[in-house]
Amino acid sequence: MSPTFEKYFVPEPSKFPIFGSFALLCIGAGSVMWLNHTGPGPLVFFVGLATLIYMLFGWFGQVIRESESGQYGKNVDASFRWSMGWFIFSEVMFFFAFFGVLFYVRVIAVPSLGSEESVSVLWQGFEAVWPTAGPRAEEAFSPMGAWGIPALNTLILLTSGATLTWAHWGMMKDNRTQLKLGLLLTVLLGALFMGFQIYEYMHAYGEMNLKMTSGIYGSTFYMMTGFHGLHVTIGAIMLLVMLFRVMAGHFTKDNHFAFEAAAWYWHFVDVVWLVLFVVVYWL
Amino acid sequence: MSAVTPDQVHDDHHHHGPTGLMRWITTTNHKDIGTMYLIFSFIMFLSGGVMALTIRAELFQPGMQIVQPEFFNQLTTMHGLVMVFGAIMPAFVGFANWMLPLMIGASDMAFARMNNWSFWLLPVAAILLIGSFFVPGGATAAGWTLYAPLSVQMGMGMDLTIFAVHIMGISSIMGAINIVVTVLNMRAPGMTMMKMPLFCWTWLITAYLLIAVMPVLAGAVTMILTDRHFGTSFFNAAGGGDPVLYQHVFWFFGHPEVYIMILPAFGIVSEIIPTFARKPLFGYASMVYATASIAILSFVVWAHHMFTTGMPAATQLFFMYATMLIAVPTGVKVFNWVATMWRGSMTFETPMLWATGFIFVFTMGGFTGLICAIAPIDIQVQDTYYVVAHFHYVLVAGSLFALFAGAYYWLPKWTGVMYSEFIGKLHFWCSIIFFNITFFPMHFLGLAGMPRRIPDYALQFADFNALASIGAFGFGLSQLIFIVAVVKCVRGDGKKAAASPWEDAQGLEWTVPSPAPHHTFEIPPVVK
């Protein structure tokens, strides 16, 4: 054994996890009450949400203080890298489930609903053509085209990936102005993306009669783009926090994994969008 | 970072911080958290057991005696959910928490605070899940698999179950990431991957399975939720969806899930058998590769749960052969265990009894699994008691027996006191005899055509059902013996355990004193 070794950082007892648990209890119970129109659902839900936000601020704040005071060594850094990678993998699998659903619906479920035996026995007059709201669709809708806002959003997200890498180059060169500018641009592009997405939803609901209730097309469309939008929002918040931290003078060119983790996440969100653009909007 | 010069190897200094209840709520210590996991899972085991006994009491004779059919369905559903997500999975995570850092020479888990949250989410999920019995309409009665369209039609108990599943999923994913990072990044100098105890390997691979499939389950129940409340049509054919789609998504999670519940059991058994055969594990490397093969294959066999849903014959054939292929790596494992025992200096202390019992009874469950995998046979036994017998042979006699084996094996390390061999052996013999009395007749019931999940049945099934119910009550009561064994150890009522209480136990966990000090391996040991 070498005479010295790096002691792995083990945190002191912490009150934050139990706040997190209480928060999720309230969010879970509150949502159930809210959905079933019984009891003080929204109240319980928002108490939970507020507790969760308090917990996230406190917990991440503590991690940032520990990191900035140099308590984490190389080993802890490696742990963070492994964990962020596998966390993103778990997110990939979450989206994989919905991509699988879309594949199954388009390749198996809808064609079998339109098969001869199905049409002759159950669903008279149904034509299995995608997009569809199913054999008992109540109202017509127009599907979302790919080459309007979605294509523009693709461009925006790809550009934001480039600006983020440019920001990272700034970090590596110790050019804080480039770093700040790159981060700011990335966050703004993310916000622009979300703005367009919200506009697209309003347009879909208002003029195209495309709703969550528009059969399987509406279900998959809103579920997949909605969860992607949620992840863009989370990623943008992460990058915004990184921007604030950069402005507070955090990070050095050798020690900035939090920034990299947020960047990894952003690129992940980017890649999901590309697949989404192809299979949800385009094909 | 701090560079410290090692002065003493086991530095059990000043445990400061909160005391009493707050110690347990705020703890970041892997041993405290492991203990909480184990206690929680045992409480859930008893709760799920009470549900099982109510089911068996109702089925003691034909006709309706004790519960209403609706409540019976809630019981079968909740029994499954509680046992899978509340008892078996957390129990293995408890073992991982306690033993992984000790086995690889780490000071704690990689993310000690997150570890605490992983645990404390479980009681929250349990409150939502068990609490659903008391809401209007009662708990969900869709079966533990929560198949659509039943799960789309249930009352608010179903919503509570959905959120409970989400929270358990968050807990599992965080726990799994913690385990992966701990194993990959926290090993002591010299502890190469291929020197790790097999328990670490099986848990590493299990953790990957968890990370890969828990999000898919989250997706499945999310679609149930939106179908219920937001008008989507994922599982509704009228809107272009398909109820069978739910089964595909669920079993894409569900089949890896059954390996999540058995791979750590393989790990525990692989620790115990070499100790009591006084021989190194036979075919260590092949055990690692077999575990990995099982995990990889588990992703391409899910539709064998759905042979009767009307799949094309080619699809049935693919899933049938892929499933039968799993018998190969599983067979490698069973043969390796037997080969480890071959010409060993065997003794049969309680952990070894459980481990050998495990091999015997689990293998029977494996064989019935192989039978169920054959599509034409499966079509006959689908949703019969044959399936119930099969998965209880692998889950009770597999996972649970391995858990008891591990508990007796490491109790001296945890408590510093030897358990009573008499009580341990009594627990084992009662369990294995009553287990077989309960579940062996179910094979016959299933082959004779008795469907599962029904509160009443035809007269010709009466004898075997009565027998199974008697066995179930015997099995349930036998588990109380375990409480006696543990309480005696915790109260210090027994022989003091040495650091290595077993004659030939290998592994770093036996180099620290018994009971294991609050902090261990703050200075990493060097493995040669």
UniProtKB/TrEMBL annotation, chain A:
Membrane-spanning intervals of the chain: 16-36, 43-64, 84-105, 146-169, 181-199, 220-244, 264-282
Chief place of localization: membrane
CDD domains according to UniProt: Cyt_c_Oxidase_III
Protein localization: Cell membrane; Membrane
Keywords: Membrane, Translocase, Transmembrane, Transmembrane helix
Family annotation (PROSITE patterns): COX3
Keyword Transmembrane on entry: yes
Recorded topology in the membrane: Multi-pass membrane protein
Gene Ontology molecular function, alphabetical: cytochrome-c oxidase activity
GO CC, one annotated term: plasma membrane
GO-annotated biological processes: aerobic electron transport chain
Residue span, Heme-copper oxidase subunit III family profile domain: 4-283
Family, as annotated: Belongs to the cytochrome c oxidase subunit 3 family.
Protein name according to UniProt: cytochrome-c oxidase
Organism of origin: Denitromonas halophila
From TrEMBL, chain B:
SUPFAM superfamilies with a match to the protein in the record: Cytochrome c oxidase subunit I-like
The keyword Kinase is assigned to this record: no
CC per GO annotation: plasma membrane; respiratory chain complex IV
Pathway annotation from the record: Energy metabolism; oxidative phosphorylation
Chain segments annotated as transmembrane: 37-57, 77-98, 119-142, 162-186, 198-225, 245-269, 281-305, 317-339, 351-377, 389-411, 423-444, 464-487
InterPro entries cross-referenced by the UniProt entry: Cyt_c_oxase-like_su1_dom (IPR023616), Cyt_c_oxase-like_su1_sf (IPR036927), Cyt_C_Oxase_1 (IPR000883), Cyt_c_Oxase_su1_BS (IPR023615), Cyt_c_oxase_su1_dom (IPR033944), Cyt_c_oxidase_su1_bac (IPR014241)
Entry keyword Transport: yes
Keywords, in A-Z order: Cell membrane, Copper, Electron transport, Heme, Iron, Membrane, Metal-binding, Oxidoreductase, Respiratory chain, Translocase, Transmembrane, Transmembrane helix, Transport
A biological process from GO: respiratory electron transport chain
GO molecular function list: cytochrome-c oxidase activity; heme binding; metal ion binding; oxidoreductase activity
CDD domains (alphabetical): Cyt_c_Oxidase_I (cd01663)
Record localization: Cell membrane; Membrane
Membrane topology field: Multi-pass membrane protein
Broad EC category: translocase
Main location, first listed in the record: membrane
Domain annotation Cytochrome oxidase subunit I profile: ranges: 24-528
EC number: 7.1.1.9
Catalytic activity line of the entry: 4 Fe(II)-[cytochrome c] + O2 + 8 H(+)(in) = 4 Fe(III)-[cytochrome c] + 2 H2O + 4 H(+)(out)
Superkingdom as given in the UniProt entry: Bacteria
NCBIfam families: CtaD_CoxA
Family listed: Belongs to the heme-copper respiratory oxidase family.
Function: Cytochrome c oxidase is the component of the respiratory chain that catalyzes the reduction of oxygen to water. Subunits 1-3 form the functional core of the enzyme complex. CO I is the catalytic subunit of the enzyme. Electrons originating in cytochrome c are transferred via the copper A center of subunit 2 and heme A of subunit 1 to the bimetallic center formed by heme A3 and copper B.
PANTHER family per record: CYTOCHROME C OXIDASE SUBUNIT 1
Name this protein carries in UniProt: Cytochrome c oxidase subunit 1
Organism in which the protein naturally occurs: Denitromonas halophila
GN (gene name): ctaD
